[in-house]
């Protein structure tokens, strides 16, 4: 680990000033500290923001939920409003990590966690995300766990967050605080595809931090859930995952929100699947037909071709679980 200085921000203005001066924000530290140990991350200054007033979960005027960036994962899981209104969120969080990590990690930190690509974490390997212009060792290396959607010639690493998949499906909004004030960004625009600049992973500007994630008020009743497929049952990152939310009224699907994880360079919204569902009556035939669109545009690599079929099956299974039908 390289030397660094540490400061604990007593208030929002102090935190933003320190961030604008080049400090890196830290709260739970469950990802950043690991990367610092491995010398993948080498911040000169850490700005502890854990004392900031960003720990509330509140119902919005329109009936959605606003989750503060410093809410612990375990707190969000246990919150009655989250469990009742958006079970897809609580399920994604429960499947993300051990109880110990959920008691430390924050919602904002979970969104901001960096890829688990082994080449990114190996400082001797070529990685454009870690060192722009060095190449991507995963393209022709062992790429079984890598992305098949949203990839580029510069990067094929997946985004590891489970709850980010649920936020993507629900079309959440990210609230940001910065030196120039407050602004909002649609969640689907917040995490960036690699393109030619895989080192630029999010829409944060210099000195900005995440204040909250807001979930929209969706029609009721809303059924939702999260399915995670992985190599082992506990505490493993997804090979594929599916976040599904359906509003079914009068026996017809009126709203459909679907996204996938473990297969994209960012959490992957599935609009083609959603279009297949709207206006239809739930049935096993419908789930099968809609899920066939889940891998549209996939570009599998040598070792992860299995993810194309696995993604379709994962989406189909979760549609059946959430939507029922005959």
What does this 3D model show about the protein?
By secondary structure, the protein is an alpha+beta fold. The protein folds into 3 domains: 1-52, 2-Layer Sandwich (Uridine Diphospho-n-acetylenolpyruvylglucosamine Reductase, domain 2), CATH 3.30.43; 57-112 and 162-215, 2-Layer Sandwich (Uridine Diphospho-n-acetylenolpyruvylglucosamine Reductase, domain 3); 223-323, CO dehydrogenase flavoprotein, C-terminal domain (Enolase-like, domain 1, 2-Layer Sandwich), CATH 3.30.390.50. Helix content is 29%, strand content 20%. The strands form 3 sheets. The protein has a 5-stranded antiparallel beta sheet. A 4-stranded antiparallel beta sheet has the order 9-10-11-12, with helices on both faces. β4 and β5 form a beta hairpin. It is globular and about 60 Å long. The model has no long low-confidence stretch (mean pLDDT 96). Keywords: Oxidoreductase. GO terms for molecular function: FAD binding; oxidoreductase activity. InterPro entries: CO_DH_flav_C, CO_DH_flav_C_dom_sf, Diverse_Substr_Oxidored, FAD-bd_PCMH, FAD-bd_PCMH-like_sf, FAD-bd_PCMH_sub1, FAD-bd_PCMH_sub2, Mopterin_DH_FAD-bd. Residues 1-220 form the FAD-binding PCMH-type domain.
Question: Summarize this, please?
Answer:
This protein has 326 residues and is an alpha+beta fold.
If strands are numbered along the chain, what order do they take across the biggest sheet? 4-5-8-6-7
Helix content: 25-40%
Q: Tell me the Rg in angstroms.
A: 19 Å
**Secondary-structure arrangement, i.e. CATH architecture of the largest domain:** 2-Layer Sandwich
**Head-to-tail CA distance between termini:** 57 Å
CATH topology grouping of the largest domain: Uridine Diphospho-n-acetylenolpyruvylglucosamine Reductase, domain 3
Mean pLDDT: 96
Residue share in β-strands: 15-25%
> What is the count of distinct domains?
3
Provide the low-confidence segments as ranges: none
Report the count of strand segments: 12
Q: Classify the secondary structure makeup into a structural class.
A: alpha+beta
CATH class of the largest domain: Alpha Beta
**How does the major sheet shape up?**
5 strands, antiparallel
């Amino acid at each position: 680990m390289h030397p660094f200085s540490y400061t604990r921000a007593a208030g929002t203005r102090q935190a933003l000033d320190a961030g604008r001066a080049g400090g890196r924000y830290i709260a739970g530290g469950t990802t950043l500290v690991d990367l610092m140990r491995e010398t993948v991350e080498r911040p000169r200054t850490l700005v502890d923001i854990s004392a900031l007033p960003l720990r509330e979960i509140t119902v919005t005027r329109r009936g959605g939920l606003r989750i503060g960036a410093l809410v612990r994962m375990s707190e969000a899981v246990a919150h009655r409003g989250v469990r009742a209104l958006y079970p897809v969120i609580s399920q994604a969080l429960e499947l993300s990590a051990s109880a110990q990590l959920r008691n430390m990690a924050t919602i904002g930190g979970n969104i901001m966690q960096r890829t688990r690509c082994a080449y990114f974490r190996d400082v001797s390997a070529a990685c454009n995300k870690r060192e722009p212009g060095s190449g991507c060792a995963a393209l022709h290396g062992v790429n079984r766990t890598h992305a098949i959607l949203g990839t580029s010639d510069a990067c094929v690493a997946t985004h590891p967050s489970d709850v980010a998949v649920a936020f993507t499906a629900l079309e959440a909004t990210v609230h940001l605080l910065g030196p120039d004030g407050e602004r909002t960004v649609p969640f689907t625009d917040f995490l960036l595809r690699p393109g030619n600049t895989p080192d630029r992973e999010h829409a944060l500007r210099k000195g900005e931090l995440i204040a909250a994630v807001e979930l929209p008020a969706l029609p009721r009743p809303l059924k939702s859930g999260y399915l995670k497929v992985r190599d082992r049952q506990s505490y493993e990152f997804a090979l594929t995952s599916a976040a599904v939310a359906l509003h079914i009224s009068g026996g017809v699907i009126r709203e459909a929100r679907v996204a996938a994880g473990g297969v994209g360079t960012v959490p992957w919204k599935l609009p083609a699947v959603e279009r297949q569902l709207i206006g239809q009556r739930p049935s096993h035939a419908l789930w099968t037909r809609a899920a066939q669109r889940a891998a549209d545009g996939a570009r599998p690599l040598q070792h992860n071709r299995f993810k194309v079929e696995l993604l379709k099956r994962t989406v189909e299974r979760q549609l059946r679980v959430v939507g029922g039908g005959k």
